[in-house]
Amino acid sequence: MTLNKINVGLLSLVFAFSTLNAQQHLDPEYVKVTNERAAKIVTKLDLKNEAKEKAVSNIIAQQFRDLTEIQDGRDAEIKKVKEDTALAKEKQNEKIDKLKSKADESIAKLHKSYIKKLGKELSEDKITEVKDGMTYGVLPITVAGYNDMLPNLTAEQKDYIYKALVEAREHAMDAGSSKEKHGWFGKYKGRINNYLSKQGYDLNKESKDWHERVEQREKAKK
């Protein structure tokens, strides 16, 4: 067995132990917060079935907690690596990259499992509502914004925008903070804007004109 394989194995064990430790010491206050966050999402689903509401709420709340356990475990180990002054910077970066990669793999597996669990309780439309609930409704808001700013978008362009934002939402669902969630959408909006620029849109001008139209609409309401 090579030294590299041994190091990877040790990192895996460290990460697994950190996750287990996080599970054992999960803050009761955070459990309460995750339950409340999940309940807010479920309320908007209007399921009209108390048993199903409880089941879905538990699935969502547990997802929040599972994500936190993985992310906190990763961050704690990264902190230790950064504080290890005996390690050269190159070695630190190598270990940090491995820890991040391992966490990403765990999160990807968790994501698939989570969607599968929701699928046993909800329709595809309701699952989409859950995804939007976990990401502050950024996708529909952003789609509406592009359509309002660029009323002459073709069907193909609209499809590109929507699919890009759907991909962003899948990543944002797993992000650990509001900033990170919005960061994913920001990244994909950058791709969308580059695409639209290549399609011939002057987005600086379009954005300026749009904001002026929005202001006029708001004034007209008063």
UniProtKB/TrEMBL annotation:
InterPro entries assigned to the protein according to its UniProt record, in alphabetical order: DUF3826
Species this chain originates from: Flavobacterium fluviale
Coiled-coil segments: 82-109
Superkingdom, natural source: Bacteria
Leader sequence segment: 1-22
Keywords for this protein: Coiled coil, Signal
Protein name: DUF3826 domain-containing protein
